[in-house]
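Journal club prep — side note

Before the paper discussion, L.F. wants everyone to see what a predicted structure for a comparable chain looks like in token form. Sequence:
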Amino acid sequence: MKQVHEVASSVRACLKQAGITDPADVHYVQVKGPLLTPASIADADRRGKALVTRDPNGSKPFARGATALGVAFGLGEVKESDLSNDVIARRFDLFSAVASTSAGGELKNCEVLLFGNSPTSSSDYRIGHAVLEDAIDADGVRAALRNAGLSFDGNPSAEVASRVAAIFAKADVAPNGMIRGRRTTMLSDADINYERHARAAVGAVIASITSDPAIFVSGGTEHQCGPGAAPIAAIVRA
């Protein structure tokens, strides 16, 4: 919960710096935070602190989940009364629709970058977002582009697609390994981690619509949209 509160405080500071008064104008919040490492586990042991897990890789869901709930709390998407250590990486009905979080052993703090449409901005760029209901949700990609301000029927033309400046998305596989009633091997492939499969699939779907593979896709969606879903954001030239 300490991490949740720290991220929420940073999100509120970002809103103030950007001159954004309405959280609805926020469309994407990228957070990179720390995860457990052998060194930090040993340090916790020396200080007599309890750990949620002793597996560095297994700490990723808790790290990503805590920072995502920090975004949700900072933007008013969840109530503080619903939050506790026990809900992190467990109660997935609590989430942010605009958070994109990741974790790495190289960090000891959380880095927060907030994207939104500020009423004080004179930029030619606008950002919008949508929800990918699954890893092959092409309609979700189109919805993000339209939410950012692009107008098109079907898929965007080459001229319209050229106005796309950036795409950010998260990727995951449904907890039961099913996509639209079909079984996948993402959760049972011993050679490749499921996040790699999901990122490849989502990246290909996005590129098939934007005609540009310059896409940021991150894996692991704990508390980032509902179970099986994932956020996507698009920055376009107005």
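L.F.'s comment for the group: Strands lie at 26-34, 99-104, 111-116, 125-132, 164-171, 178-179, 182-183, 216-219, 230-237. Keep this in mind when we get to the figures.
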